[in-house]
Model the fold of this input.
Amino acid sequence: MIRINCPFCGERDHSEFSYGGDGSIVYPSLDAPAEEWSAAVFQRENIRGMQTESWQHVNGCRQWLLVERDTMTHEIQSVRAAHDGVGKVLEKGQ
Amino acid sequence: MTAVRVEQGGVVDRQSEVSFTWDNRHYSGFAGDTLASALLANGESIIGRSFKYHRPRGIMSAGVEESGAIVTVGVSHRRDANVKATTQELFPGLIAHGQNAWPNVRHDLGAVNNLMGRFFSAGFYYKTFMGIPPFEWGRKGTGIWMQYEKLIRRAAGMGRASRDPDPDHYEHGHLFCDVLVVGSGPAGLAAAGKCAEQGLDVLLVEQDFEFGGDYLNHGGSDSIKKRNDAVDALQKAGARMMQRTTAFGLYDYGVAGLLQRVTDHLPNADPHLPRQRFLTVRARHTILATGALERHYAFGNNDVPGIMNAHAAVCYLNRFGVLGGERVVITTNNDSAYATASNLAQAGAQVKLLDSRRQVPDSVAGLLNTRGIELETGTTVLNAHGRKHIKSVETAISGGNHWRRGMDEECDLLLVSGGWSPVVNLLSHRGVRPVWDSNNCCFVPAETAEPVTTAGSSLGIWGNSDCEASGLVAADSAIASLGGQSVSVSMPATGGWETPLEPLYEVEIKGVTKKSFIDPQHDVTADDVRLAHQEGFVSVEHLKRYTPLGMATDQGKMGNIIGLALMAEALGREIPEVGTTTFRPPYTPVSIGALAGRAFGAHFKPLRRTPMHDWNLQHGATMVDAGLWQRPWYFAREGETITEAYIRETETTRTSVGLCDVTSLGKIAIQGPDATEFINRVYSNAFAKLPVGKARYGIMLRDDGIVMDDGTTWRFSETDYFMTTTTAHAAKVMVWLEELLQMRWPELRVHVTTVSEQWAGVAVAGPKSRDVLAACLAEPATVSAEALPFMGVVESTLANGAPCRIARISFSGEMAFEVYVGSDYANSLMDLLYPRAMQIGGCLYGTEALGALRIEKGHVTGAELDGRVSIDDAGLGKMASETKSYIGSALRKRPELQRTDRPRLVGIFPKDRSETFKAGSILCSPDEVEGLGEGWITAVTHSPELGHWIGLGFVSGGHEAWQGKVLVAADPVRRGNMYVEVVSPHMVDPTGERMHG
Ligand SMILES: [Zn+2]
Done:
């Protein structure tokens, strides 16, 4: 059972979180051509090793997080708030 | 047969007799017995029947690896099948039965399978499936399979579970500790003791009902004293100790799954106690002291009752005080059986020891001198004789690299030691592949970065004092990994025997045919492995699937190594080159009840009730599940069927007024300076210019251009919106909005808050809806046609002073309002609306009438918006703005989604208007009623307005493509086929005059 250290709530079981997907994808602007959207939505890497992925602490603080996780070992290298502004507020508070 | 309880010895409590029933006969044993030791003491020999061949089987071991004495414990609704008698603790009143046999295990007619062995060899299921001889007989294989499946299933199976509901309850729990120690033998106790001494929070678990592991198997008070001292010290140090608790699996992040058997050993358990607990433990470090299992080897009839593992006989003698036989033959390839021989001889047995090794040093052989034990070196067993119990063995004599036939030797107990296999299962669960130790001929755990240390014989260390030392080493590494002060302890060497073991997996002499079992639980023989190899199954993983070697409850405990060895031999390779199979959890079986815990029946999923749930029930509602919610389905009046009720509710709503609880819709408050921009990006239709005081129907797409959800959004101020979603997608939409705001558009200053629980909602629908609603408001004029036109929203006050929100929106197609009040006011809202509605002939309506109303109008719900449907497919293409960009706008234009022959939303009429048809039917062209067809039906209802049954569905090209043509609604498994016509989905009031009126 993976444990994720939510920067807002502390370490919790992954059952409190829901998996989003590849967190490294930069979505094109809404008016970008279909090709760009197709690349972002359908052309995905199946990463073996460290991957940045999005998780939401859905049964907790509801924050979306960026998690660096090794897909082979489940080892988690880092967890941070997906929203930069929120992340900065958190840092200041500490 | 000849097994007896000896006069003294053992750790059973001879003062406390325990009576039990085996196959309808009464017996007695002692407290501290297992069912197996008690049966053995009572002279029972045949305890089970084998899986395929129904061969008689006796007790083959003294632990979890048991492959013979597999029984059914308990009766009627407490019947528990496939229990290993060797691990079942005896208790007063225990009732056990033999299984897989008729009429009983002693006389089993199914044993005829034994004569048909040729047909039941490896892969016989697959062969019957494919129609390979001898099951072919000129017919298609699958046809034959259908014929024989029932027969084979009845003939080849194990115990039968009770079909009644499980009367017991189970609990789930969570535990945390610094160090989890699995196993309480010499290594486990030593490791736990040292960790606890250092102040670590230790949890020790033991699958047996006694702590001590191998300490229990040695005669004399020394080892029992060692155990008692270690247990006392642990208790004093505050360690938690759980017996009857199996660590069945090891998972990520130091998580282990435990199964604690709480009442399985109690005659009259406190009903408040759970039968078992399923515990998830999170340990910072885990020490595995899981021991080793003694192997057998393959020789003829090596499954006859009266043959068991050598060490099991020591366990029965020294722990349970039962001597397994009078004339004992022991066959071994290693030193461990010498102490066994000595032990049994001391207890009075006449012992003959056959050692397959030609050279045995005096230091070992000398053990036997004083006991009158005969030793024959370079000798082993070729074949066992005896049908229901062993009578004699035929020996084989080593000629260097081959065997030749030896003598017959009478015996009533044959003990086998083919070496030892460390229990590496738990580490294997973590993906750590064990490595082959060629000195000891066994797999041992590999180095791992996991926070797991192995100790004792599970590491391939055989002597108990060496195991204790390795437990201290393991404790040391745990202490160090947790940041404690480590003291270096020297690690004992693996093995520990005077003379090396000589590998022995099978004894074979050319021309001697015999049945040699390698996995007795699944009736897998040495020949089966060779057959699998011959038929091309050369990988270990394939071997395991072609023969059932090491499957099911065995999980490779008994025959894994021999199977590998024989496969390696067939391939001409070494064992490590052939590899090992991956052991998977659970180590021993976990009951379904324990997995479910309390999550069954009403507790299977959470129940969501609307705040007017009780009010609805009091007013005659029959409820229906809608996701997690319960909603009113229909409000039957005296004597009405559901169909009569919903038709009446539909008619009343169209002609007068109806009230419907719509609280389950998702409700999201969207607030902030950029709320308008946000909503405009999310919905496909224009929202930028939605005026304050207005609502708009909106559709949101996914990134890939497929419809995600629909609903209305109400604007209360420049910065304050109220969004409703479908009941089904409420949570998903909320997550989606949060993802967009936090991940994609962090620059937008918007807050989204779920307010689904805060507001209770009622739809007031029908031509008289305004009259009813107005009469319930403090200011009736609030909802006048002028003040609140179609799609107008207003914040107002009920006649009783409760604040409310009203929108003039319609799902039914009639003039209608949705009224929301704070959840605490839900009943008071209903108490205002209901009498006024009833006064003018109105009614309450449920989801069935709601469905009828919306189907008549061609309004879509989750049944239509199933995640495959584009906005154009749903006939809502006009809702997709061409002038703005929004989520999904780019990929909506994918050529595939723009094809005009895609299935489009249509209305459906039966060709014969007096007929009906079923939702889920496939729409086919009449000349080709098969395959995927032209579309499908999503919803069906009776339309009071039209006077016949109607439906919604999707058909290629939409209704225009099928004008004047007939389709077949094919429903082969339920109702049969029906001719239908397709029409516009807007079947009632297509221009929408009523709701605007
Ligand atoms: Zn959190």
